[in-house]
User: Which sequence fits this backbone?
């Protein structure tokens, strides 16, 4: 369930309402209701989920959701504990239901509490914490002891920050829990919407992003980074990891403990790294891959599939570094050969 | 003509003044005057333009400018309706005239109205719009109804924002018109100067950037992006396009409708995309290219020339994806062959 | 010595204290004391330095430091003017001593002066300078005449800014000296900590960054850039250089005069460019390389070693552009040959 510190649930919805919103047809239970949205594998009673295609059939068969939006071909795989709602585009239907349940999912304050104060009366700030001028602190925020909050920092509703944290000027944090002794340099944005849409011929329908960002203890994050919150799950930055400037962490990534991510590197989304992974500058990591513990990725590499831990990888697509070096050397040699032939032939 | 909502014109200038500023010599009309600067193909009466070389001879012959700065070799191609001013470096001369006409082109407020108020009295804000603390709204700004303006947002003189827009914390907007239902996440900069200089042995002379940014309806822009305004024309983000975090859009780019631009991608300048173009993460697009409707560009690609629509492209330089995949496979195979030979030869 | 405008020195430390902090053993002089930290080649009397390995033996033999942290194998190379302190991990020991001497090295204000005022009483602002609302100016800051300071700008303790500078909204500057007529666009962060750690099996120990950023006259820096201050030396941006949006300049880089760095390019650290170097978009430059005067680097290149000036380089690893073009053409030709063979063979 979406964390109520960050999200106001406008539900419940009757299945009749879901049907009206989405065009999906329920086999039964039009007066049943759903209170929340969730992924197939984390949904529980009273929650609605969706299954986009046969790839997720296993999760569908095991789901504990009360209602599942499915294409007709998968209706028979919905477990008996759930009501199947059949529709052509389950992901779009699910996004519409999510929007109805969380119409203000990307707001920085509760819909009924416009930010009248720079520091909300309900915010709690620990002892010894110094707050510079121009700071915005929203409803229900909790900040630990001995923190330093730089000029113009904006901390949205419900955010929790541990002890001895240091936030540079104009840091923005929403939908996030930040550990002890974290350092975030100026201009970094933590917790904004992930980049998720259901695309069709008429355009791109925004999928409400209902997760959080969890930044564990002793993390340092550079200047002007962007760390998106999760869609239904959380984006996680593991304990003791160090992130350089201008780094992009998309939604649902789980960065392991004690990683080192150099400047301008980026993770698309839903990927995972083990402990002590090191990324060089301008590395890109595709979605849904896993980088094993202790792996090192050379600068400017593109990680397109999962990589073994404990090794050095490089190139695009990223591969064992010796292989990439051999490819670089091979191409150089072949091109020189061509040049020599061209010169010999007088061309 | 530069939009007077954003730019104060300090003209007109006598041609004698232009000659003194630039060293250009007019064949006639030293007491004529020019009121504005414009590109050859959009200039009209009372305006000065320039032609850098024979590549633009066609546009020169058709121009409706009243005055044109040209190298001697092109003076005879200036149409009879225009006065030719001959000089060695027309682009530099034009930049100097632009600077004289718009000495404060990159200011965030009118030169005669220093920003005494956080919200200028002349700004108009629609009904139902909620403005967080610490927001700066400049002279003549208009914001529609039911918008959400996050903490510390800075909106410079003359900016127009439609209805139901949502701006995250510390968004910066200048020299721009923003449509309805646009979402801009925290820390994004819209409307700053494009990256334009006339370079010579003594350094780089700044070319005043006199265009705007047009963000059409239903656009979403991620965190910490940078979208420069146009030089003489506009930078445009088409209706319904979605832009991820840390994306760079240089001056004069025209992003089509319903594009999807993944994180850390960038457009150099003066390029154009058709409808429904999709860019993967960390893609770079060179200047003055066209990407056709429905094209998809794989992550990390470098687009160096125009690409056909409706296809998937990849690699650097970007090419049809199957070709790029073949190249990757070919190099891998050749490098392995080399390795096998080396091992066989005991080297 | 760390610039006292930016750093409060908590020393001196007795060698006995250094020993306790680091586990290093001094051959003599436990009641001697050190007042500051410095690199081997810049250290002077009363300062402590370190030598990590035999690579730096020459600098060790010439150092004028009073105390040097060294591994046992190098103790005999410490000059007679210095006391050797032997330890297993000199870099880690040095980082611990630095932390003890500068416990608040990354603060934005002096530890004993929390920022009560948006504009510190001790700040000096020149005539004709216009300051927008929401600006933070720290203790001891000096800003010249006729500057424009945009909304929400944050200038930390001790920063010096010349005349006629222009700072866009939410620019952040700390630990920096900025020249005359500099332009910095919105959201750029100058002067935050470089990305430096001593890594070990238990994690990454933060190395205090005690240098500065020097931005010389007539520099322009785009939106949402990040320019880190030096570790022990300074990061320098040379006179008249122009930097586009979203550019990363890591610690200790020395960018030459009149460089042009296109958007999303990045320098890892401790590299140097000559005059009139041009980088295309998304170029990456590794650490400790030198790019010669007048070199041009094509977009998306990766500079992994020093490059000759006056030439055009491209590719990754960057090489003479003709060579890179030949490689691209060679690979394309080979892959096509393979395709033709495959088609002929019916595969």
Assistant:
């Amino acid at each position: 369930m979406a964390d109520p510190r960050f999200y106001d649930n406008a539900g419940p919805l009757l299945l009749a309402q879901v049907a009206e919103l989405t065009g999906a047809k329920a086999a039964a239970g039009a007066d049943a209701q759903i209170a929340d949205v969730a992924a197939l594998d984390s949904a529980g009673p009273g929650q609605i989920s969706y299954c986009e295609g046969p790839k997720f059939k296993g999760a569908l068969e095991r789901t504990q959701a009360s209602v599942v939006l499915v294409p007709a071909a998968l209706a028979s795989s919905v477990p008996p504990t759930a009501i199947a709602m059949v529709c052509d585009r389950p992901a779009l239907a699910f996004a519409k239901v999510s929007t109805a349940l969380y119409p203000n999912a990307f707001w920085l304050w509760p819909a009924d509490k416009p930010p009248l104060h720079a520091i909300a009366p309900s915010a709690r700030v620990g002892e010894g914490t110094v707050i510079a001028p121009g700071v915005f602190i929203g409803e229900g925020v909790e900040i630990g002891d001995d923190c330093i909050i730089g000029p113009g920092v904006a901390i949205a509703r419900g955010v929790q920050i541990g002890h001895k944290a240091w936030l540079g000027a104009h840091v923005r944090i929403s939908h996030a829990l930040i550990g002890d002794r974290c350092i975030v340099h100026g201009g970094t944005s933590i917790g904004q919407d992930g980049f998720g849409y259901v695309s069709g011929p008429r355009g791109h329908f925004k999928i409400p992003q209902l997760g959080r960002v969890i930044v564990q203890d002793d993390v340092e994050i550079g200047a002007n980074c962007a760390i998106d919150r999760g869609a239904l799950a959380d984006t996680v930055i593991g304990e003791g990891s160090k992130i350089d400037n201008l780094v992009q962490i998309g939604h649902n990534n789980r960065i392991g403990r004690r990683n080192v991510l150099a400047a301008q590197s980026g993770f698309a989304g839903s990927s995972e790294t083990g402990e002590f992974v090191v990324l060089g500058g301008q590395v890109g990591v595709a979605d849904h891959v896993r980088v094993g513990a202790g792996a090192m990725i050379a600068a400017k590499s593109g990680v397109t599939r999962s990589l073994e831990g404990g090794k050095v990888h490089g190139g695009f697509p990223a591969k064992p570094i010796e292989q990439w070096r051999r490819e670089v050397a091979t191409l150089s040699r072949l091109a020189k050969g061509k040049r020599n032939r061209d010169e010999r032939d007088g061309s």
